[in-house]
């Protein structure tokens, strides 16, 4: 076992995009801590979703597809918390957590703010509501600063919004499909790297307003508590008391911008290691760029990689952080 507590480890949980077919199969068969947490997640999620988490992860014929938002979000939540259990089984404990968009639900559970039934309820009910907005909007990823992106967005007032700040030169925009397409064309003309995100709704924008009352009503029974691990919120960009992570917070998390970069900057003080706890590193470049821009020396690593979901990849990632002790 290896105690990294002296290094100050931040666990980061991304939103969507880290998923891939077969991402859990090897660890389900070879890593007892991972498999046990996945079983617990399945017991909490399956009654709420109406499908089998383990069937999806094992690719059982007839299991629902990861392209569905009401499938991929609960599945990724289960992956994040099970990978956390795997890190912890090797003596790597988080001294702080940050979640990005839906990743905040896993962060809240890992921090001790939500018990597993409540966390499962938040991810299952909210993703099911999101599925009802299919076709209502779109999102795009731009290699720009937040300030420069805002200059672009002024050309489409009320139609596009800054949805996420992932790094010094990495943002996501969200809004109406036609306006998004026009923005992407303009970026191409200006030699700005940009791409459409593979979703057909506009998270972190005013187009989420129809979900306000259903979320506030559906999650009214969620009972957050003060956690045992510091929780840096990418909804507020501050260290928060997790007793405040009620239904209103989980709507704000979906409606407002993801302030990941400022949240990470706040967490970097006193922390020398950042681990993206996911089946594929989707935030790692932005994390490293943020560390560099802040003048820090923290080490940032991923956990698994697309096509490499077994113990060998995990051991490679673990070996990287041993060097910072």
TrEMBL record:
One of its GO terms (biological process) is fatty acid biosynthetic process. One of its GO terms (molecular function) is fatty acid synthase activity. InterPro entries: Ac_transferase_dom_sf, Acyl_transferase_dom, Acyl_Trfase/lysoPLipase, Malonyl_transacylase_ACP-bd, PKS_NRPS_Biosynth_Enz. The keyword Ubl conjugation does not apply. PANTHER family: FATTY ACID SYNTHASE (PTHR43775), INACTIVE PHENOLPHTHIOCEROL SYNTHESIS POLYKETIDE SYNTHASE TYPE I PKS1-RELATED (PTHR43775:SF51). Pfam families: Acyl_transf_1. The keyword Phosphoprotein applies. It comes from Winogradskya consettensis. This is Malonyl-CoA:ACP transacylase (MAT) domain-containing protein. Residues 12-308 form the Malonyl-CoA:ACP transacylase (MAT) domain. Keywords: Acyltransferase, Phosphopantetheine, Phosphoprotein, Transferase.
């Amino acid at each position: 076992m290896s105690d990294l507590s002296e290094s100050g480890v931040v666990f980061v949980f991304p939103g969507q995009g880290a998923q891939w077919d077969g991402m859990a199969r090897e660890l389900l068969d070879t890593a007892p801590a991972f498999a046990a947490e996945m079983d617990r997640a399945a017991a909490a999620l399956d009654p709420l979703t109406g499908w089998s988490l383990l069937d999806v992860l094992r690719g059982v014929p007839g299991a629902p597809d990861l392209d569905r938002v009401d499938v991929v979000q609960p599945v990724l939540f289960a992956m994040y918390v099970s990978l956390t259990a795997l890190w912890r089984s090797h003596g790597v404990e988080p001294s702080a957590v940050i979640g990005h968009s839906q990743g905040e639900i896993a962060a809240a559970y890992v921090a001790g703010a939500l018990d597993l039934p409540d966390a499962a309820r938040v991810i299952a009910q909210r993703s099911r509501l999101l599925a009802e907005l299919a076709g209502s909007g779109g999102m795009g990823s731009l290699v720009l600063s937040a300030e420069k992106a805002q200059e672009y967005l002024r050309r489409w007032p009320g139609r596009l919004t800054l949805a996420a700040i992932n790094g010094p030169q990495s943002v996501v925009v969200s809004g109406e499909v036609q306006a998004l397409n026009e923005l992407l064309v303009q970026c191409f003309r200006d030699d700005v790297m940009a791409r459409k995100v593979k979703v057909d709704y506009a998270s972190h924008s005013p187009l989420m307003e129809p979900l306000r009352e259903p979320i506030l009503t559906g999650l009214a029974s969620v009972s957050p508590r003060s956690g045992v691990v510091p929780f840096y919120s990418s909804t507020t960009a501050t260290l928060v008391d997790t007793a405040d992570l009620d239904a209103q917070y989980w709507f704000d998390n979906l409606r407002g911008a993801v302030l990941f970069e400022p949240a990470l900057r706040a967490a970097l003080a006193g922390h020398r290691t950042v681990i993206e706890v996911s089946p594929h590193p989707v935030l790692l470049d932005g994390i490293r760029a943020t560390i560099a821009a802040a003048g820090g020396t923290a080490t940032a690593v991923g956990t698994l990689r697309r096509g490499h979901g077994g113990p060998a990849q995990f051991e490679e990632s673990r070996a990287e952080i041993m060097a910072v002790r």
